Structures are given as C-alpha cells and as structure tokens.
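S.,

Sequence below, as promised.
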Amino acid sequence: MAAGVTMPRGPGALGALALLALVLIVVKHLAGGDLPLRLDGMKPRYLMNLNPRDPGPQRAQEFARHADTRHIRYDIDPGLGVDAATLNREVRRITPAAGARSRDANPVFAELKGKIRVPLMTIHETADFRVPFRLQQDYRRRAEAAGSGHLLVQRAMRWPAHCSFDGAMRQQAFDDLVAWMERGWCRRATTCSATS
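The prediction came back faster than expected:
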C-alpha cells in the first residue's frame, strides 16, 4: 500500500480490510520502519504476535502480565485518514500487572537502561517479528543517552527470521568481540539507528 491512498471506511469486509491495512502500517513502524525483507518476516509471525492481553493458554498468560504500552509512540504513514497524534491520543493503553516488569521480581521483563559497562555486541535480523529490529534502535538511543554508546556494536543481518544466524556469522562476531575486548578494536561495526 502506498502512502497517500485514502482508505475506504465502513462496515463489512471492505472496512475490515481497510482497518487491517492501517494496522499493518502501524506494525511496520513498530518493527523499525521500511526494513529489508519486512513483509517476508511478518507473514509467518503475524497471528502469533497477536498474543491475548487477558490470561490465555501456554505462555501468553505470562507475557500478558508484563504488557505495557503506556510509553509506546505509534507512527503511521501520512494521508491515511488518521495522523500519529490522533492515533496516540485515542489508542487504548495497557498497563502491566502489579509487580511486573520489575528487575527484582523478573529481570527478563525489566526495562534495559543502556548503562553498558563492558563491550557489548548484538546481532539482529532486519525482519525479526518475534523481537522487532526497533528494539535495537531503541537500545542504541538508550545507550547513547546513558553515555555508553561507545561500548555498543550492533550488527544487522538482512533476513526474515529470529536468531537464525549461521555458525560462520556467530564465530566471526565472537572473534571480533574478543579482539575488541583485548585490543580495543572491532571490525565492521554497524549502528542500528532509526535510519539504518
């Protein structure tokens, strides 16, 4: 869908398709923007990523406890009948359960502050819809704000999957991390900024 297209509204299938198209554009921005292989990465994960907010089967119940959309800024392409300000003002926000997202209670769900004390290298696929690329962009901003951006090297792999790095890529990253720690040098550094 191209920006600038007016979406039809109303009941029925056409209205539902228009709403779905808007959701997909919002999801594009949540994932990090127009990234390589974005649609290929979204297809297999789309329904799985619609985890229920209310307690449900399997792991959805635990994830639902920690859901927090209070500080998420949603974006949308222009010309689609709703702007980002309206979307952010009117979207329903979700608050985590009491005690959730606590570093003491469950550090897995605690917010990362970007206060890095040792060299850190990350590898991430551009079209990972299990852990979207935008999280790398957000972490870069936090590390820069905390004054530790110089300790963060991020590598992006053009691929539509989650943690599917081959042995050669992992080995190269490990060798480069060791060299960085021992000699203060890291080759092929990539910064995962909002424009990467």
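The first helix runs from residue 12 to 31.

Coffee later?
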